[in-house]
Specification:
alpha/beta, Arc Repressor Mutant, subunit A, D-Maltodextrin-Binding Protein, domain 2, two-stranded antiparallel sheet, about 45% helix
């Protein structure tokens, strides 16, 4: 192949190469970038000439990355991540902030864990600008995928979306709680998975990590039955205190009510209600320094607990 004089590849061509590598075809990449397929093909041929490398192999079944192209695609990911980090930093400077992190977190984490992490974080970074969006776990993932959050924290989601990296930052257990006047309050033997599946449980909305863990745990007995859906931990606790339970919540969230005698934890048998807390971020975008620092604090807290 004819090799042109060394020229730095343009970012549009590199972005197209990344899309072709991720999506597996010129046609899909063309639709993503709102270009024609011949235009994408021409860009890729020009990129091959400028780099002097055969990036694609043309076969009867279609076009695929060559072994050399696969190696270059990994480097291109890093290059574009650095460019995106540069743009993010420039935007922060334009807004007048030396550091910024946009965080989305599920309700339990936002209420009971993030305040401590943020207190450490702001102590280390007095010029920090932090924005926090408190939503359910499914919406946290959507915000991260869309680029609306640098870093997300979710509960109970083990298999996150493609293109998302994650790390465990804590462990938790859901517990069944009722008011002291509820019939289950004095059950020494507790309840089984079958008992829970056969009971109308007051729970969170679809998309909540708490609800998803509970529903998955009760699948062997027919799944979750819930006619009353409430959108906050406080509302669930209030329902339980008024005898409207049973309610299933994080043991962290119910600790004060149980200690003060307002609620009783009902023992459970043959059902696993454990879960993990995870930090999530886009695989293709390098975490900025502020987001990385917050992630390190959350991870360190989980190791010391």
């Amino acid at each position: 192949m004819e090799v042109l004089p060394p020229t730095t590849p343009d970012l549009t061509s590199l972005d197209l190469l990344r899309s072709v590598a991720q999506l597996g075809s010129f046609g899909r990449a063309a639709r993503l970038h709102m270009m024609t397929q011949p235009a994408v093909s021409a860009r890729m041929r020009d990129l091959e000439q400028r780099l002097g490398v055969t990036i694609f192999e043309r076969t009867p079944s279609g076009t695929q990355l060559s072994p050399e192209g696969a190696q270059l695609a990994v480097v291109v990911e890093r290059v574009l991540a650095e460019v995106e980090a540069l743009n993010s930093s420039a935007a922060a400077v334009r807004r007048g902030h030396s550091s910024r992190v946009q965080v989305a977190a599920s309700l339990t984490i936002a209420e009971y864990l993030l305040p401590g992490w943020i207190r450490i974080f702001t102590g280390q970074s007095p010029n920090l600008a932090l924005s926090l969006d408190v939503v359910n776990s499914t919406t946290v993932i959507a915000h991260v995928v869309a680029g609306d959050a640098d870093l997300g924290f979710v509960e109970g989601i083990e298999d996150v979306t493609d293109g998302i990296d994650s790390v465990v930052v804590g462990h938790d257990r859901l517990v069944v709680v009722v008011a002291t006047t509820h019939p289950w309050a004095n059950l020494q033997a507790g309840v089984t998975g079958a008992d829970l599946a056969a009971t109308d449980i007051v729970t969170r909305e679809p998309g909540s990590g708490t609800r998803e863990v509970l529903a998955a745990a009760l699948t062997p007995w027919g799944g979750l039955h819930s006619s009353v859906v409430l959108g906050s931990t406080g509302a669930l606790l209030g329902a339980a205190r008024r005898g409207g339970g049973p309610v299933v919540l994080s043991e962290i969230a119910v600790a004060d009510d149980v200690a003060d005698g307002r609620l009783v934890v009902v023992p459970t048998r043959d059902v696993d209600l454990s879960r993990s807390f995870r930090a999530v971020w886009r695989r293709t975008v390098r975490l900025n320094s502020s987001a990385r620092r917050l992630l390190d604090i959350a991870t360190a807290a989980s190791l010391s607990s």
